[in-house]
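thoughts on both lines:
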Amino acid sequence: MHFRCFLAGCSLIATTLAQPALADALPKPVAAGLSAIRVGDLRADVTFLASDALRGRMSLDPGDEAAIAWIVAAFTKAGLQPAATDAAGQPSYLQPVPLIEYRTDTRASYLALGDQRFGASAFAGGYRDDVDLTAPLVFAGYGITVPGLGYDDYRGVDAAGKIALVFDHEPQEEDATSRFNGAGNTRHATGRVKALNAQAHGALAVIVMPEPNRKHLSNAERSRRIGGSALRNPPLPVQARADDEVHIPILTLTDPVTKAIFAAAGLDAGGLQAAIDRDLAPHGAVLMTAPLHLHLENAERRHGMSYNVAAILPGSDARLAGETLIVSGHHDHDGFAQNGAQIWHGADDNASGTVGVVALARAFAAMPVRPKRSILFSVFAAEERGLLGAYEMAAHPLRPLATTRAMINFDMIGRNEAASPQTDGLITIPADTTNRLNLIGAPYSPDFNAAIAEANRGIGLDLDSRFDRDNVLNVFFRSDQFPFVLHDIPAFWFFTGFHPDYHHESDTAEKINYAKMAKILRLSGTTLWNLGNAAKVPAFVADPPGAR
């Protein structure tokens, strides 16, 4: 009996969507293989992964371990080669992702500046180890260093042995002509990149402050709008990679604490932000305040192991088989509470992406022809806890990053985008999204974007790039393609958009638009085939400019 029929039942419709144009664009075996991706199979697989039995697939929980086992079984049955090796040096589909899970003790953790003490409600974040340090404060603008743009917030600033205070986001983000990708986010806008930069300048910790002149919600305000698992009580545990490259704490302040710190320093935070945005020159300085005392304690802490699941389809050309295309998703979600009375099913986020990777893996493995370049199919661990599996593979790649030519990441490819509390008043959603796919990543590789658009001529999806111009929802760095963008790899996130069930218990399998999902997979497969055989691979643009 077929594995997924046994798990999810075979009474479901097994429709094959006709795609006449596909046969004209691809070799017949390839077109046939992609057209054989069936709605019924997608439905059966998502239904299993999002079932009550897997209890929300929380990283390090048994439900997620069951999902990992299911992916391994699917890759094995398809006949794909394992892409990793185990501790004994034997081929394996599993790449270990060592994790530390912790919960901050909010009663014991605090910040203190002179005689002002701020409890844990005044900041967000923590650290995998307990921390107790006292150090001077240094203001370092937005905390960004980009030689290619001639911009460095640390120029003339000595951050060694200090705690770096930096604004969130990046300069001139409302300016469509800004050298920082116009009004869209760049890879320099994230807290992680700012922490790595502060660490490189000798800082002991980095504290991110909401920009005083911002025209958008702070990240904390945006997260509270999501509701669902974002507001669970007790909160979801935090996880970190055991060997993470970031070795210093990252905290995010609330507005009142930011104001208190700058008031103590006798400085105008809004004026400083305006000055940086005006001339893109550094305005950093050591703050003339008492040293900041940072005290973080964890109430709980444990080590655990999750796994990236990875398989390889070797390329057919001896000269090009060493080059890699990556197709990815993530297998975890937000688990359960109240002993299973509440389950965050994660059908769209991201059973849809997991099943998408598996469906393409099956399709390509069954074809009698193969692309010249190799394809790595990877389903990442612990995305919901901070893209941890993707960062692990980017740090310890299974195939050389220098010869990785492109990446397609599936995260939420199963729904029609719809208004929700997270997006209300912040973005405009098209009236009809039944055939719409959001593409995220074009500024960093217009070549890749053109390849997708060319493949879509035979598919007919409505492709939408508006999230590449987003600086409100921070979409660009919220999924597993982002760690690879940090390594200069052309990478796109395929995303059908937010909806009211995002991170709620109601993200269930019957709400998936399986016909649309199949169409997205055919677009992906067509793009992979074309890139796998192309004479020229997509170029990466390190510092995309704004509109000119």
In short: DSSP finds 14 helices and 26 strands in the chain. The chain has two domains: 3-101+301-352+363-387+399-482+510-533, 106-296. Confidence is low (pLDDT under 50) at residues 1-24.
